[in-house]
Design a protein that fits this description.
Number of strands: 5
Distance between the termini: 68 Å
CATH topology of the largest domain: Arc Repressor Mutant, subunit A
Number of domains: 2
Strand order of the largest sheet: 3-5-4
Structural class: mainly alpha
CATH architecture of the largest domain: Orthogonal Bundle
Helix content: 55-70%
Number of helices: 8
Order of helices and strands: HHHEEHEHHHEEH
CATH class of the largest domain: Mainly Alpha
Radius of gyration: 20 Å
């Protein structure tokens, strides 16, 4: 692989992009080489960063190696805060695609979506139209009204955010960013569970003193 590929991989990771075989097949193949991955990690380590892999091993992304510094913690809190504001809309989108899916499966990594089929199902259901409008509103999309316009706008937005890739006009495929989203949400749930357990233990300890 060329130095150009190395630079492209590093730049993409530092920009917060997730690299999988759907979003960037060449860079994904590059990172699957242990030698190449080590080279990228060595370069990023000087910046306090490293490469992580989603739990399903579908996508690579950049993480901080040290989260104890005040600057890093502030950045992470800000990033998770921004993401949390979108979680509800993303979950609504997953619910909508699950309702439409033939196997009751929400759109995920490598799943293919045809806009025409999705639109046909939405136009037949007033509740799905309402859900679509709610999702667009939560993402603060301000395009023209109507299911067709709203759906097109939403799909383009999800492409911009890295969740979808447009394979051909009006045909999309999910990237491993859905896997990353699941990992992030699982991390938050685990942190909440730990904090709840700690609060309960502290409460029990205080009660035992009286």
């Amino acid at each position: 692989m060329s130095n150009a590929t190395f630079r492209h991989v590093v730049e993409s990771l530092l920009q917060g992009k997730l690299i999988c075989d759907v979003s960037d097949a060449e860079c994904h193949l590059y990172l699957q080489s242990e030698t190449a991955l080590d080279s990228v990690n060595q370069y990023l380590s000087a910046l306090g960063r490293g490469v992580a892999l989603t739990t399903d091993q579908a996508g690579y992304y950049c993480v901080y190696l040290d989260v104890e510094g005040s600057d890093t913690r502030s950045k992470l809190i800000r990033q998770f805060g921004q993401l949390a504001t979108r979680w509800e809309a993303l979950l609504l989108w997953l619910r909508l695609t699950r309702q439409i899916s033939a196997n009751a499966h929400p759109l995920g990594y490598k799943d293919t979506l045809k806009e025409s089929e999705l639109l046909a199902s939405i136009e037949q259901s007033s509740s799905l139209q309402a859900e679509l409008e709610s999702i667009a509103t939560r993402f603060q999309l301000r395009g023209r009204a109507g299911p067709r316009n709203r759906l097109t706008e939403l799909l383009k937005f999800l492409c911009t955010e890295g969740f979808l890739i447009e394979l051909s006009p009006s045909i999309y495929q999910g990237t491993a960013r859905w896997s990353m989203l699941q990992d992030q949400m699982e991390f938050i749930r685990n942190q909440d569970a730990i904090q709840t357990a700690e609060r309960d233990a502290e409460h029990e300890e205080q009660e035992a003193l009286f």
